[in-house]
């Protein structure tokens, strides 16, 4: 315990020394681009509505297909799972597409696909139509992944936590409004017979109305994205670059006249052994000139990414240069994605347990609440959560870093979850309501903190060229956690109720802690021990976006913040002039850290 306290103390002191006072942090924060953030909010909002609206009407929809009430749960479970089954294999593909084709193009494609599949899902009039198009809707759901990649590119370390908080806030608002809106608008002929006649299209397709509204929302967002999101920069196979900064030169001596020669061939000592002496590459040379001194900077494409003439890459070479290989070989990216999946498992587990506990009868230790009361409790806590997410959690992440936020959230979540069933012992109704709202907030605050922190960490494990692929992989793994959590937690819940003492029909009940407390204890143990240990191992430098690799760091390891080599902007003064010099067919050779022309 003393070692843990000492570690936290060192982390807090270190963060204070690096960042300064809270007032200084606030002054340093870069303002978010309002138009881009508004469009991202809209994209996530409608995506969240499309994901969660089905849960308010799914049982009734399944019964309308002629399925018995006994079998409704089974068939509804497959429809609910089909969305995540479709999302698992396609998540990485959406991330990869955003890295290769650009964020804007990928967002337009995903929004278009979501609008079409949402509308087709709204035309459900049979079970298999519902099952198939719910799965296809999951396949087309790349919006959240692309938005995270887009936010990472436009943000820096000072405003990335706030931008991620906006994404989470928009998602939370969407999952509140989505089911509520759908509950009011599905089966309109039954709810509003005076407005919707029996031969109306909305009577023939009873869930079309809310799905059509969401599809229109996607289409409107597409037009806004066309107007406000800038076009993607063109990328090529030479996207990866190496930078060399040559020794200072005296401007009075014409040492760099030969650089203007557009047909320079160097010796066979090439920078990358992958290129032979007969191969050339296009490079960009920048000449920095100041007071009496000048610098050459050679920007050289990654030689391995350049295909040699008349030679096809082997499958192994294609795999080694693929984004999938780069992401899978990134240790901390894989660890972060695994932690993302574990957090998703815990989150869905609590989200399933909480309404089951609230709806359970008092004799089983529940609160016996109606669906209206449960909705009201969620609405109150959600409104408070959105405010806290944009203020408290964002400030904490910027102040102490994503890793500290992750650890505090995991431990706080694990401590709060077992207290949820205790509210069932309170007899006074007002006190019970107060305890319930407090319990939900104490659970939801660290739950949101986990996802804010892990999203920042996942993004910071890779560079901008891989951030989409990393988010796609993390999203796919989290979908696996979300898919298996309901069955595992639901089974634990059912088994635990057989161990509640004083219930007729429960033979040989085990009692506490294997009664209705047991599934809450399991989730708490996973959070406090398994997830916390994984988070503890994550290096602190992932609190910040990765910096360019320095030449004295050959293994590609990213050092702690503050230990990076200086950038060109740090080296040269404000009055330095920069001249771009383009060279065709130039292959620099090097010896040690020097580059010879």
UniProtKB/TrEMBL annotation:
Region named Disordered: 544-571
Record field: transmembrane: 35-55, 75-96, 108-129, 135-155, 162-187, 207-226, 332-350, 376-397, 404-426, 517-538
Keywords from the named record: Membrane, Transmembrane, Transmembrane helix, Transport
GO MF terms, alphabetically ordered: transmembrane transporter activity
Signal sequence range: none
Gene source species: Clytia hemisphaerica
The Major facilitator superfamily (MFS) profile domain, residue ranges: 36-542
Location relative to the cell: Membrane
Pfam families according to UniProt: MFS_1 (PF07690)
Bilayer disposition of the protein: Multi-pass membrane protein
The protein's name: Major facilitator superfamily (MFS) profile domain-containing protein
Record GO cellular component, one term: membrane
Cross-referenced InterPro entries: MFS (IPR011701), MFS_dom (IPR020846), MFS_trans_sf (IPR036259)
